[in-house]
Amino acid sequence: MGRIDREKFKEVWPDITTDEVIITDERIQHIRVRHPNDFDRYKQYLRGIVEDPDYIIEANKPASAVLLKDFEENGKHFQAIVRLHSSADDPTYKNSIITFMKIKDKEWKRLLENKKILYRRA
User: Fold this and answer.
1) I want to staple 35 with a disulfide (CB 3.0 to 4.6 A). Which of 6, 12, 44, 101 is the partner?
2) Residue 101 to residues 66, 89, 90: CA-CA distances in angstroms?
């Protein structure tokens, strides 16, 4: 799905072992069930979200990050949650997308107001 800039993610988890980000078939199915049509309609945005997030905010689980990206050309906001790979993990694993969805303006604002911002694009 793309590659992360490890410097941007140091606040999330300092022990990131790879910059490669994948998405498994099981996670694609999860997204299709939980967020109908979002994956098929917006999957072309995933690389941009991963490689150039507008915000990285604290997630509820360790070694995970919430990525937020606003695409101005279509006025849509997106959220992706990424699980980061550390040296304690199975070495065959990679950073991995846990979920992905389009979010409404209200949710975008709520996340930015109520969650700890770890990275903000300049």
Assistant:
1) 101
2) 11, 26, 27
Asked if residues 59 and 66 have their Cβ atoms less than 8 Å apart, the reply is yes
What residues contact residue 122 under an 8 Å CB cut-off, 6+ apart?
Answer: none
For the stretch 61-119, pLDDT in tens is 989 999 999 987 677 899 999 999 999 999 999 999 999 999 999 999 999 999 999 99
pTM: 0.91
Q: What is the 3-state secondary structure (H, E, C) of the chain?
A: CEECCHHHHCCCCCCECCCEEECCHHHHHHHHHHCCCHHHHHHHHHHHHHHCCCEEEECCCCCEEEEEEEECCCCEEEEEEEECCECCCCCCCCEEEEEEEEECHHHHHHHHHHCCEEEECC
